[in-house]
Amino acid sequence: LVTEVRLRRVLDSRGNPTVEAEVTTESGGFGRAAAPSGASTGEYEAIELPAEEAIAAARERAVPRIEGQVYAGDQRGVDAALRGADGTPDFSAIGANSAVAVSMAAAKAGADMLGAPLYQHLGGAFRGDSFPTPLGNVVGGGEHAADATDIQEFLAAPVGAPSVADAVFANAAVHAAVADLLAERDIPAAKGDEGAWAPAVADEEAFAIVAKAIDRVEDEVGFDIRMGLDVAAAELYDGERYVYADTERTTDEQIDYIAGLVEDYDLAYVEDPLDEDDYEGFAALTDRVGSRTLVCGDDLFVTNTTRLREGIEVGAANSILVKPNQIGTLSDTFDAIELARANGYDPVVSHRSGETEDTTIAHLAVATDAPFIKTGAVGGERTAKLNELIRIEANA
Ligand code: PGA
Ligand code: ZN
User: Fold this and answer.
1) What residues sit in the active site (predicted)?
2) How much is the average pLDDT of 98-123?
């Protein structure tokens, strides 16, 4: 039984307060986890409250329903208690940040009691034996950096890597190669919130630089590295058009533009190419690009089975981004992954732009046999997950 749930404020990678939870069990199990936080958040995400408020509300409403009431290993029970304590569909009473921290901490306490790694506890005995390919954010802008690219994330996708470790090092090498290419062109660049380079260049130049960086690293490592994007198009859409620094595009033009990019750069992955309400536009694009490219819904689906079901009905995508804090509990997250899988959608587990040293998503990706995980390329809060993946692979 869970004997104690503690909540406190800790720092996230942007220097903002976030919620950390600790769960202790009667038999001595212990788990600790912290909530991440988005900047380009989807309109339909569960609600993040200010950390202090979320902690006070969770202490009052949720903690009494968990302490002495549920087993840490009973993830459905813990998460049902959180849902019941909150009573709203979007965790606006206790905050999805409190909910997800407690949910993840309970999972870790459950794993600790079994003496098993978290991925084993979450994935069970019949888990597959594949490992996720990390998508590395190497150039970015949008809501993650001022005066940089319009497209939020240019990603390296080392699809040919023989191991997670090789893929992780390849992404870091692409990140370094981008720095070299920027220096060669005398383009100064700071880093955005996720550690990607954030140069003040047009998207067209960013494509050229990333493509070249990938070529260089491919030559070194000898396996296939493709490119991916998170367009985060909801942030560009003004209700009528997609507004870029140098041009505007109608929905049809946006679909043509993205389909052209998929072809020109052989994109392995395109996330949120259209607005978060445009299921039809998503479907039209998905129809055009074919199965060589994942069209992934982040702000579109927000890890929510109701929204995913709508998307499945119209063929909106072939992939879903999975962020536990978008929905608030690990049980809801697993439900979204299961629904996706049953309908041929690939789950891609993801960090947020505001992160901590928490490594839960690395275990979640392994537990669910996700083909990809998006968790940056460099920077301590990103390497926490990447290095955890290297360890899991080495010890599996
Ligand atoms: P966010 O960005 O964490 O700021 O929402 C990540 C993403 O859009 O994938
Ligand atoms: Zn996104």
Assistant:
1) 194 (proton donor), 323 (proton acceptor)
2) 98
Interval 342-358: pLDDT, tens: 999 999 999 999 999 99
Ligand 1 close to Cβ of residue 381 (< 6 A): no
Question: Is 194 a catalytic site residue?
Answer: yes
ipTM over 0.95: yes
Give the position, in ligand 1's atom list, of the atom nearest the Cα of 354: 3
Q: Which of 48, 108, 276, 323 is catalytic?
A: 323
pTM for the predicted model, two decimal places: 0.98
Q: What is the 3 state secondary structure string of the chain?
A: CEEEEEEEEEECCCCCEEEEEEEEECCCCEEEEECCECCCCCCCCCCCCCHHHHHHHHHHHCHHHHCCCCCCCCHHHHHHHHHHHHCCCCCCCCCHHHHHHHHHHHHHHHHHHHCCCHHHHHHCCCCCCCCCEEEEEEEECHHHCCCCCCCCEEEEECCCCCCHHHHHHHHHHHHHHHHHHHHHCCCCEEECCCCCEEECCCHHHHHHHHHHHHHHHHHHHCCCCEEEEECCHHHCECCCCEECCCCEECHHHHHHHHHHHHHHHCCCEEECCCCCCCHHHHHHHHHHHCCCCEEEECCCCCCCHHHHHHHHHHCCCCEEEECHHHHCCHHHHHHHHHHHHHCCCEEEEECCCECCCCCHHHHHHHHCCCCEEECCCCCHHHHHHHHHHHHHHHHC
Mean predicted confidence (pLDDT) in 233-242: 98
Ligand 1 atom closest to 232 (CA): 8
